[in-house]
Design a protein that fits this description.
Elements lengths: L2 H8 L30 H21 L4 H18 L1 H12 L10 H12 L1 H5 L3 H28 L4 H33 L16 H12 L8 H30 L5 H19 L1 H12 L6 H11 L14 H5 L28 H17 L3 H28 L12
Helix pairs in contact: 3-7, 3-16, 4-5, 7-8, 8-10, 10-11, 10-12, 11-16, 12-15
């Protein structure tokens, strides 16, 4: 069975029949048998329509006010990001390390090295200010957009599973306008560490988040704050769509299993972590290509390369210019190809083929042809762990806070939304 077929079967409504328990108020009716031993198909269709109607009624009853979803999502999402920020810093250093041989190798040794040399606040948690300033409003926008699009798509008659997929896709697209610029600032400050860092020369040296913003806009323009936007979208939109499709389905299965809305902390953690981990595994090839595109040497920087070649191989008929300086080459708008979204857990293998393309689809073909399926899923283990923990933290807190807000509503609430 292909991966596409498996995903389609996973979100198929027929899968729910396997989870129908005696506690489910919609029970399978007695079916009459025909001479060929088959069940009455009309009865089955009636039961399926009745079950889907009951599912839609449960969906309506569970509709919380938008403000509750946005606040719970903002707190849950930013908490997950803050929890994993130090790991994000280590992966960013590994990706953007310009030294040969690299200074940062394995995750554990790099983590300890940064901690010992630079500490927590200016080392492992460097860049935490723009990270939070982007994460909190970004997840507020995400959950607000997700609930809005999901509800309207379901009301328009779209099947629940497709509504969850489309809702996650559209929500991440809306939130990307906020989180991508903040991720650019966060990533550069993570690479830099402290101001005038004596332990690591990243090529960046900003005094603060505000100074970084001003410098980037002045030297590179506002568009530099959206660097890596296309590659980020190609990876994060499918991830969010799959993550929430899996999560919503697993939540419905869990509620059917226990026969109620409160599934308990154990199942909350299981559904949240498995949804994020599974989505992370499936989108790992996109993560691999994104990393390779954003971390490979950029050979198209004509001015820099020409200047370097001229300095190294001056023309034999003309003397090298005596007033040549290297500062403009070193600055080069302080641009470095690094990941600008949730941490990439893939470190390119030494000797890997340079993709030499900005197309994600072309990159996928090159990686598959040269490195096989194993190359497409390089780093899948760390990615599974990261997405599981981050997703688990975000979604469990989201559900806990929703229940608290339901008990102590900020706006009048009748169980079907704000009144």
């Amino acid at each position: 069975m292909s991966l596409t077929s498996w995903i389609a079967n996973f979100v198929s409504p027929s899968q729910f029949s396997n989870f129908t328990q005696t506690k489910n108020p919609i029970s399978l009716p007695h079916l009459s048998n025909h001479g060929d031993g088959g069940h009455n198909r009309t009865d089955i269709r009636k039961w399926e329509r009745k079950r889907d109607m009951h599912s839609m009624e449960e969906e309506e009853e569970a509709r919380h006010p938008y403000i509750h979803c946005m606040l719970a999502g903002g707190v849950g999402g930013s908490s997950g990001d803050m929890l994993m920020h130090s790991i994000d810093t280590v992966k960013t250093r590994q990706q953007g390390d310009p030294h040969i041989p690299p200074k940062y190798t394995s995750l554990s040794s790099s983590y300890l090295k940064i901690f010992r040399q630079e500490g927590i606040r200016r080392g492992l948690y460097s860049g935490v200010t723009p990270a939070f300033l982007g994460s909190f409003p970004g997840t507020i926008i995400f959950f607000g957009s997700y609930e809005y699009s999901k509800r309207h798509l379901i009301d328009a008659g779209l099947h629940h599973s497709l509504a969850y997929l489309a809702g996650g896709f559209l929500a991440d697209l809306a939130a990307s306008v906020v989180y991508v610029p903040s991720e650019v600032l966060k990533t550069r400050l993570q690479l830099q560490g402290r101001y005038n860092n004596p332990f690591f020369n990243s090529g960046y040296n900003y005094r603060s988040t505000l100074d970084a913003t001003r410098t980037i806009v002045k030297l590179e323009g506002v568009s530099a704050l959206f660097y890596g936007y296309k590659a980020t979208i190609f990876r994060d939109l499918p991830f969010s769509a799959l993550q929430f499709a899996f999560y919503e389905q697993e939540q419905r299965w869990a509620k059917q299993w226990v026969g109620g809305k409160d599934i308990g902390l154990g199942l909350e953690i299981l559904t949240a972590t498995s949804a994020g981990g599974l989505a992370g595994v499936i989108t790992c090839p996109l993560d691999v290509v994104k990393t390779r595109i954003q971390t490979q040497l950029n050979l198209s920087d004509g001015d820099t390369n020409r200047a370097t070649i001229t300095a190294s191989n001056p023309s034999p008929s003309k003397p090298a210019p005596t007033e040549y300086v290297v500062e403009p080459i070193q600055v080069h708008h302080q641009k470095r190809n690094i990941s600008t979204s949730s941490p990439t857990t893939t470190i390119p293998k030494a000797g890997s083929v340079t993709l030499d393309t900005s197309s994600v689809f072309t990159g996928l073909k090159i990686v598959y042809k040269t490195e096989g399926l194993a190359g497409c899923f390089r780093g899948v283990g760390p990615r599974f762990v990261w997405t599981s923990v981050q997703s688990g933290t975000m979604l469990v807190l989201y559900q806990v806070l929703l229940r608290q807000l339901e008990a102590n509503p900020l706006v009048p609430f009748n169980g079907r939304g704000a009144v």
